[in-house]
From TrEMBL:
Keywords: DNA replication. It holds the Pfam family Dcc1. GO terms for cellular component: chromatin; chromosome, centromeric region; Ctf18 RFC-like complex. It comes from the Eukaryota. It comes from Acrocephalus arundinaceus (Great reed-warbler). This is Sister chromatid cohesion protein DCC1. GO terms for biological process: DNA replication; maintenance of mitotic sister chromatid cohesion. The lineage of its organism: Eukaryota, Metazoa, Chordata, Craniata, Vertebrata. Belongs to the DCC1 family.
Length: 391
């Protein structure tokens, strides 16, 4: 296209009945460059924090397999990516000067010819979301570690996963993935992340609690060295240390490493061991057996079982059964469908441990219940049931 002259610009202003005195003296004439196709440019809208990440030279990663909705991850946060359409076409003009820049440069009372390098009618919008971590446990549970003597480990055909593998498969940031590996008590064995088979984990825990008992150590001061010394002939030393890290809090006293055993977590694991072989358990019988099964000096309480087991107060006699929050769907609606399939009406106290992890930033359990359930009163107690029929 021929370049516009100043006279043509002035004639256009006159036709448009615009007063040149009210406008900046510089005129930018835009023309489409030869490569101005819309396809190869994508716009991404970033919040200031993410912008700072990129400016500091850190990278943002888009994660997801072919059948998953893409997410974008920084070092420690995960964002949903959605396409937002705009009613105005957005033009990419390299070296484009803004009115402020033109104002500052008074000498530029001339014509600037700019080429449009590309255009777009939409952009990617990011929304902070919960990391999709359910798959992490699912992958590691395909092949739980049953100990060094397990034949299954030698012949297993399942994949094993390094940190790099998990970063490419799980839709979450690196920090969120590493934190979740801690939450599920995963450990690195020969460079691969593994979770322990539950029976093997209980066997290790049993070795430790029996040793504590026979040595009459206080539960708040279990010495690492002595445990490794005594139990090292029975199981790999790193497994003994792993079980102490999983079920205790590590600290150093006078240069020696000790563990303060976590009563709630140990009681919870033993309850799971007792409950996993029964469909339902008479509550009072269970409470009695449970208290007898935990190490000397520990006290069992039902609130240790939040998100692991559910008490049915309406049955006669009252019963308790295993219902693990990690076995429930990750999607909000599916989670509620699944819970209302187990029980028609829930009190807020009972349902909270099973939906707490669905709360987004600054979201409350109450807000989730308002959205996915309807409330009513039953014998003076507020209960929640499904908004839709459950098939």
């Amino acid at each position: 296209a021929a370049m516009r002259s100043r006279a043509e610009v002035d004639a256009t202003l006159q036709t448009a009945k615009l007063n040149p005195a009210e406008l900046l003296p510089a005129v930018q004439c835009l023309s489409f460059g030869p490569q101005a196709g819309g396809g190869e440019c994508c716009l991404l809208q970033l919040e200031p924090g993410l912008c700072a990440e990129l400016e500091a030279g850190r990278s943002l990663v888009i994660r997801g397999e072919k059948d998953e909705h893409a997410v974008l991850c920084s070092k420690d946060k995960t964002y949903d990516m959605k396409i937002a359409d705009t009613s105005n076409m957005l033009l990419f003009v390299p070296g484009c000067k803004t009115p402020e820049e033109l104002n500052a440069d008074a000498a530029s009372c001339n014509i600037i010819h700019s080429q449009i390098a590309g255009f777009s009618k939409n952009y990617w919008e990011l929304r902070r979301c919960r990391p999709k971590l359910k798959k992490l446990r699912k992958l590691l549970m395909e092949d739980p570690y049953e100990g060094p003597d397990s034949q299954k480990d030698q012949t297993s055909t399942f994949s094993k996963y390094t940190t790099e593998d998990l970063l490419s498969l799980i839709q979450a940031s690196e920090e969120e993935i590493l934190h979740q590996l801690q939450v599920i008590d995963a450990c690195k064995i020969e460079g691969y992340w593994r979770v322990l088979d539950f029976d093997y984990e209980m066997k290790l825990l049993n070795h430790v609690t029996q040793l504590i008992d026979s040595e009459s150590w206080p539960l708040s001061k279990v010495p690492l060295c002595a445990c490794l010394e005594e139990l090292g002939s029975l199981e790999p030393r790193e497994m003994i240390e792993h079980i102490l890290l999983s079920y205790g809090r590590k600290y150093v006293d006078a240069g020696e490493v000790f563990f303060e055993m976590r009563e709630d977590k140990i009681c919870r694991a033993i309850a799971q061991m007792l409950l996993q072989n029964a469909v339902k358990f008479n509550l009072s019988e269970f409470e009695e057996v449970w208290q007898q099964s935990v190490p000397e000096g520990m006290t069992t309480r039902l609130d240790q079982l939040q998100g692991l087991a559910l008490v049915d107060r309406s049955s006669r006699p009252e019963t308790i059964f295993l219902l693990k929050v990690e076995d429930l769907p990750e999607d909000n609606q599916e989670r509620f469908n699944s819970l209302f399939g187990v029980r028609q009406k829930w009190t807020e106290v009972d349902i909270t441990p099973y939906i707490q992890d669905l709360c987004a930033e600054k979201q409350t359990v109450g807000a989730l219940l308002t959205k996915y359930a309807r409330s009513s009163m039953l014998n003076g107690v507020k209960v929640y049931n499904s908004r839709r029929p459950i098939s």
